[in-house]
Structure formats: C-alpha cells, structure tokens
Amino acid sequence: MTDTMLKVADGMVVSLDYTLCLDDGQVIDSSNGREALQFLQGQGQIIPGLEQALYGMEVGEEKEVEVAPGDGYGETDPDAYQMVPHDVFPPDMELSEGMGLRMRDEAGQPLEAYVADVSPEGVLLDFNHPLAGETLYFHVKIADLRPGTSEELDHGHVHN
Ligand code: ZN
Fold first, then answer.
1. How large is the average pLDDT for residues 125-134?
2. How far is the CA of 156 from the centre of ligand 1 (A)?
3. From the CA of 159, how far away is ligand 1's center (Å)?
4. How far is the CA of 39 from the centre of ligand 1 (A)?
5. Residues 43 and 96 grouped into a single domain
6. Ligand 1 mean position to 42 CA, how many Å?
7. How far away, in angstroms, is 33 Cα from ligand 1 center?
8. What CATH number is associated with residue 92?
9. Average pLDDT, the chain
10. For 8, phi and psi rounded to 5 degrees?
11. Which helix (H) or strand (E) holds 140?
12. pLDDT grade for 109, boundaries at 50, 70 and 90
C-alpha cells in the first residue's frame, strides 16, 4: 500500500495546509510559510465543521470548505457582553474599541475579552470568541497523512 491510498479517517494524523477567509475575502489565518497544521482526526482538535469536511480526502487533494458559525466558533451570544465601570482598569490605561484584554474570572481562570464600546457610563466588554458569528471559508490541502501510532491514539494527540 502506498501513502497515496490513505484517506482521512478517525485515528489518522493529518497534516493540513489551509487558508482561512471571512466572507469579505479577508485572509485571517494561513499555514502558508509555516508548517502544516498537524492533528489527530476524530478528536475534536480542530473546529467541527472543518474536521467533518476532511473525511475521505487523500494526500494532495484540495477543497473549499464553508463552515457556518454553529460548526465553527459559535453564534454571537448576546449575553456574553458585560458593562464594567471605568475604575476596573488602571487610570492610565487607554481603552479603544476592538482592543483585546486578558482578564480573570471569579475563579481566577484566564479569559479573553474585547472592548466593544467605551462610553461615559463604562466599558462594554465582549466575551464572545472574536470569530463567533462568522462564516468561515477554508481552502484546505492534505499535505500528509499517516496512521496514528497506538500511543498517539491512546493519548488522543499527535507526538512528534
Ligand atoms: Zn502524549
């Protein structure tokens, strides 16, 4: 059996070249100029809509994959916005719309938020994933495929 007969299936280690665009055509992520993205198929290591579309693909095969928000980073959750008073932030900190912030929740867990609006009443924070609500357009190419080793399958991730 040659490698070219391998197909993407659960338990395969996939090396994926990809370009990710939003619906305005803006490229927001790409493996171009970097190493291909490597993951174990079937483990939910990549977003579900993309993982699903790869099944059965062979090395060298390319595909356009459109991923709806529900199969990507989720719909925008209107409850994930929170207004906080200005004095939560250091007085010399300049806040601007779209700025990313690293915060901690009550349990001390790190979480990311984006400044959605700055007004005299306070700062509106958006805790949605920055790609929530976006339809994602991937161009993918299977760069390489190999069966996962028994140890990798055991651990549920790729070893290098
Ligand atoms: Zn491991």
1. 92
2. 7
3. 6
4. 12
5. no
6. 16
7. 27
8. 2.40.10.330
9. 93
10. -65, 125
11. strand 136-147
12. confident
Q: Give the residue-averaged pLDDT of 75-96.
A: 92
Q: How far is the CA of 45 from the centre of ligand 1 (A)?
A: 14
Q: Measuring CA to CA, which residue among 74, 42, 55 is closest to residue 140?
A: 55
Residues 107 and 121 in one domain: yes
- pTM (2 d.p.): 0.79
C-alpha angle 56-21-50 in degrees, rounded to nearest 5: 25
Query: How confident is the model at residue 103, as a pLDDT?
Result: 82
Cβ pair 16, 141 in contact under 8 A: yes
pLDDT value at position 142? 97
Same-domain status, 67 and 135:
yes
Domain of residue 13, residue span: 3-73+131-155
Minimum mean pLDDT range among 1-5, 75-79, 121-125: 1-5
Q: Rounded to the nearest whole angstrom, what is the distance from the C-alpha of residue 144 to the centroid of ligand 1?
A: 20
- How far apart, in Å, are the Cα atoms of 118 and each of 98, 103, 124, 140, 159? 10, 17, 6, 39, 45
Q: How many A from CA of 12 to the centre of ligand 1?
A: 15
* 8 A C-beta contact, residue 115 and residue 128: no
| Dihedral sign for Cα atoms in the order 147, 62, 131, 100 | positive
Give residue 111's pLDDT.
85
